[in-house]
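Supplementary Methods. Inverse-folding protocol.

Structures were first reduced to a discrete structure-token string of length 182. This string, shown here, constituted the complete conditioning input.
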């Protein structure tokens, strides 16, 4: 599956053929990404990414996750996905990361818009969440820009780099998205 974002950007369903390029991105951005992502140190080889992608494929088949590789001008630059899907309660959570060299260009915001549309229209979700570390202002800017509501702080909700960090929980409801995008 592919989702076209614009003439330069598309989302490709995460697959084994992405393992080497995703490993290269993580390996070249290890310090940057590990500030807020607890799994970075677990990705030490292309094989680690292949195992991870195999798990993504299983979660996709189980309808628990839909994850994509962000492709800019035919080159992988990051990942985005709807995770923790609960189709009975019609809830999903967006997670994303991008090569530091491509931050600040609006790529993640554009990809989030497409993923929100996909979640609400194709998956019939009612609620989409985004969690961002309290100190990660760049990540928080995306749900704020997309009119998510800040619900509160999840205290010590994630273990990163040997310590618990607080996360801000943002949410967006289908009716809010529909009304703001008429």
């Amino acid at each position: 599956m592919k989702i076209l974002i614009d003439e330069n950007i598309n989302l490709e369903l995460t697959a084994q053929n992405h393992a080497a390029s995703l490993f290269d991105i993580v390996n070249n951005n290890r310090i940057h990404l590990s500030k807020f992502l607890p799994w970075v140190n677990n990705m030490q080889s292309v094989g680690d990414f292949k195992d991870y992608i195999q798990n993504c494929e299983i979660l996709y088949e189980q309808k628990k996750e839909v994850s994509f590789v962000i492709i800019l001008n035919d080159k992988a630059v990051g990942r985005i996905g709807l995770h923790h899907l609960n189709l009975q309660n019609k809830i999903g959570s967006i997670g994303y990361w991008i090569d530091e060299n491509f931050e600040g260009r609006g790529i993640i915001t554009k990809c989030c818009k497409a993923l929100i549309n996909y979640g609400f229209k194709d998956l019939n979700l009612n609620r989409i969440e985004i969690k961002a570390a309290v100190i990660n202002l760049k990540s928080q800017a995306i749900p704020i820009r997309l009119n998510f509501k800040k619900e509160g702080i999840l205290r010590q909700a994630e273990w990163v780099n040997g310590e618990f960090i607080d996360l801000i929980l943002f949410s967006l409801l289908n009716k809010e998205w529909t009304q703001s995008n008429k």
